[in-house]
What we know:
Blueprint: E1 5-10, E2 16-21, E3 41-42, E4 51-60, E5 69-75, E6 79-81, E7 117-123, E8 130-140, E9 143-155, E10 161-167
Antiparallel strand pairs: 1-2, 3-7, 4-5, 5-6, 7-8, 8-9, 9-10
Amino acid sequence: xSRPGSSTLTFPxxxxxxxxxxxxxxxxxxxxFEFVPINGTVLPLMCDDCSTQITSPFPIRFGGxxxxxxxxxxxxxxIISFTAPINTFTNQPLPSTxxxxxxxxxxxxxxPPTGGTIRFEAVGTAPSRQxxxxxxxxxxxxxxxxxxxxxxxxxxxSPNIRFNYSDVxxxxxx
Length: 174
């Protein structure tokens, strides 16, 4: 949609989807690479197909929501939601009925029980903080001897979101 409100999208294959834009937004753009170094709080996600809730120290204006949400659900499979946990490992075309709010930096069948950590940290000082959520060295369930490292960065007082990818290339299937 090019303006706030609901729009119905009809696709050539006959699919019809209604989407809602909370506010005007700018299209995605390429920004300089900056992988934010964090130590952060390690989340209790040493499980398969699971999620946990965290609280942001500032409202996140996802989808133009103002003031935004401070509650996020971080999933072990490289997915975030603002409304409810999403534990499915099967990525789907967006929009999806899996959740009302989906942020999918690397939605795949990741497997934290065999290595890596998922962590978060707020960096900087108000009113210009960043909330960084990082999947660090997380293996794929069916690809041995390799792991992915990537981040989602939310910006205080901004609807902007940045995805950072350090290493997301998995090796050959095990």
